[in-house]
Amino acid sequence: MRAKPTNNLGRLLKPSQIAFIGGSDAEVAINEAVRRGFTGSIWPVNPTRSYMAGYKCYKSVLDLPFGPDAVFMAIPAKKIFNTINELRQTSAGGIVCYSAGFRETGLQGALMEKELVKGLGEMVMVGPNCYGVINYLEKNALWPFEHGGYCPGYGAAIITQSGMLSSDITMSQRSLPLTHMISLGNQASLKNTDFINHLIASKPVRAFGLHIESIEDIQEFELAALQALKAKKPIVVLKTGKSQIGASLTESHTGSFAGSHEMYNAFFERLGIITVSTPAELIETLKFICVSGIPRGKKCAAFTCSGGGATLVADFGEELGLEFPGFSQADTKIVSKLLPSIATVSNPLDYTTPIWGKKEFTRPLFSKVLEKLKVDYTLLLQDYPLAGLDNTKIHYLTDGGSFAEAASGKRIPGAIISTIPENIDKHTRETFLSKGVAPLQGLAESLQAIAKTVSWGLNRKEILDRLNLPLFNESSIENFSYLNEWEAKASISGEGISIPKGVKSDYKDILINAGKIGFPLVVKLLSKDLLHKTDIGAVQLNVKNEMQLKKSVVTIQDNLKPYKDKYNSNCFLLEEMLPAPICELVVGIKRDRHFGLVLTLGSGGVFADLFKDYHLLLLPVQRDEIIQKIMTLKAGKLIEGYRGRAESNLNMVVDCIERLIMFVLNSDTRIIEIEINPMFVFKEKVIVVDALLAREDL
Question: How far apart are CA 424 and CA 426, in angstroms?
């Protein structure tokens, strides 16, 4: 962003004057700005009113004393263009355009939106079709509805593409510390990356929470995410539009391309972005990061005053990869002296009710456990009683206070978690927030939040090193065509990649050519237009003699009769019938106009689509990433020798995959897509059994 627009974004976020243009919606926005604590000048603009919300109205923008720092605009779409021109003449700073009727409505609206952006000049704009901006730190708001939100002087900056979601989060009863709430709408001018880049240096902003329907500029987003990673400020993303219906709704909502959900996940993983599945998980993850901080590792000490609670924490935590180190024999004796006789020394630790609410016992116990286990963070499971039934609340608060002091004394992140989300009231939440302990709500969401934050901290440096290599840029792909399997395999075999012994044959010479291969063999129809031969019965396996060969060819030709106008039925590939491998993989590389080159690794063969056991990686990729992803596949377990079966050489498999990548990168003719399915993995070799290849037309 150029210097002047950057300055105008600063004016928008921290205005001395705000012009409110419109009628009743603008009046609500004035009241919200005042309620938020804005003490600057308020200039309503309305040609038919004398006063609005108690402030004198100006007839037009040109009547204002000078160009305002910020503008809230809620007028019909067709009237906006003239108003924008007048604002530009006054040298206004930034605009929140609440008005709808632009790109989200279709082609005509998209053209109007382009003209709108052209008219801005050096001004910046949030929207159109957005709720606006709340700056909790500076106590100002450009917002069309009553809103909530809690700010203790630090917190998360949340940037969403959904106005309603942003409003819902401000109203949530979860005490998430907030610095900013930004509803982007159509992102015609300002995008989430502009706000990330602008706020990255703000010390009170400890993390970014993003709701994303789509990303239009992948490279721009990558650069912004890299800056956040360097600044040790996690980005937590809730991506919507992954279902078929959701994607179509996204397109109609913002007029933007939703993209492939799996590719987005691969993109976020590459950038070290934490992804969440629900708004509740978004809030709890941001709360833990902003209040407790980033743990140094996975080791956790957990406390409960219930045996059942301890089991719940252990069960959920183990599934998420959290580690609960045990006590040494010597430390068990030391800790047992601080516990009632009915208690068992363990981690998670049920400290039992005889010492519940007694600080003289719980404070030294919590501290001693943290000292002996040398953990990276700690948590206490507590569900608080309802108002009116809370005579025992003081005991919960006493133990919570002891826990907070122990965590603070050891300088490790701490969290108090309620098993049921609503079982921790506002007073309690804010009590522990003031002590630097995150009050997390809902055991499942909370442990997910902790696990993902831990992972972010452990992987941050490695991800930064990896991001020294940016994504490959892709130009649009206009015309391309597929090779038949014989041609595809011939192309890759020259790169040191093994393929089965085979020969191309027409029907007339098929018996002669079969003799060159030997039985048993495989018969496949050869056609560049037939991408999935198995689906229509164009492959015959384990053909053992000439009689079976003739029968197999007839079978293939019969299967092709419904498609006789589409596929040539007189060209075949004969290949040796390979023995059963240790495992089968699917390996694919494809050019995507948004994300560049995408590598697919999965369990292969006929079960590839059935099991959906695969991972996507965006290139360039490092060797250790390929290894890691293969080993998380079901096929990966087979490679290392599952339950005493034969094992293969993983490095040999990765060598083959890297040769495929180099083949795509170095090809004289641009490869658009290559898919190997299956790739047979044997003890001492890897063979490409089937290959699909598309290249750009010259």
Answer: 7
Distances (CA, A) of 300 to 130, 416, 417: 42, 13, 14
Q: DSSP state, 385?
A: P
- DSSP lists the bridge partners of residue 535 as none
The CB density around residue 561, as the number of other CB atoms within 10 Å, is: 8
Question: What mean pLDDT comes out for the span 10-29?
Answer: 98
Is 533 a residue whose pLDDT tops 90?
A: no
Contact 281, 320 (CB under 8 A): no
Task: With CA atoms as reference, report the closest residue to 10 among 68, 94, 113, 72.
Answer: 94
Closest CA to 178 of 72, 295, 36: 36
Q: What is the DSSP letter of 189?
A: S
Residues 6+ apart with CB under 8 A from 636: 630
259 confidence band (pLDDT: 50, 70, 90): very low
For 611-630, write each residue's pLDDT tens digit.
788 999 999 999 999 999 99
Q: Where are the alpha helices (DSSP H) in 467-539?
A: 485-493, 510-517
Distance CA 596, CA 477 (A): 11
The per-residue pLDDT for 475 is 66
Question: Which tokens in the block code for residue 553?
Answer: 């060819």
How is the beta sheet containing 41-45 ordered, strand by strand? Answer: 41-45, 17-22, 70-74, 94-97, 124-126
322 within 8 A of 454, measured Cβ to Cβ: yes
Q: Are 421 and 385 within 8 A, CB to CB?
A: no
Q: How far apart are CA 545 and CA 528, in angstroms?
A: 28
Amino acid code (one letter) for 420: I
The pLDDT confidence band at residue 609, using thresholds 50, 70 and 90, is low
Cβ(125)–Cβ(142) below 8 Å: no
Residue 650 has pLDDT above 70, yes or no: yes
SS3 content of the chain, % helix, strand, coil (to 5): 40, 20, 35
Q: List, for residues 168-185, the tens digit of each pLDDT value.
A: 999 999 999 999 999 999
Specify whether the CB–CB gap between 685 and 498 falls below 8 A: yes
**Residue 97 amino acid letter:** C
Residues constituting the chain? 698
Structure confidence by residue, pLDDT tens digits, 66-116: 999 999 999 999 899 999 999 999 999 999 999 998 988 889 989 999 999
Percent of the chain with pLDDT over 70: 96
From residue 298, give the alpha-carbon distance in Å to each of 294, 335, 521.
Answer: 11, 22, 52
Structure tokens that stand for 451 in this block: 């696990």
**Amino acid at residue number 156:** A
Q: Confidence class of residue 465 from pLDDT cuts 50, 70 and 90?
A: confident
Any alpha helices (H) in 467-541, and if so which ranges? 485-493, 510-517
Whole-angstrom distance, CA of residue 398 vs CA of residue 404: 10
CA gap 321, 325 in Å, rounded:
12
Whole-prediction pTM:
0.90
> Which of 101, 163, 109 shows the shortest CA–CA distance to 132?
163
58 three-class SS: strand
Q: Are 73 and 125 in contact (CB under 8 A)?
A: no
- How far apart (Å, rounded) are the C-alpha atoms in residues 577 and 521? 4
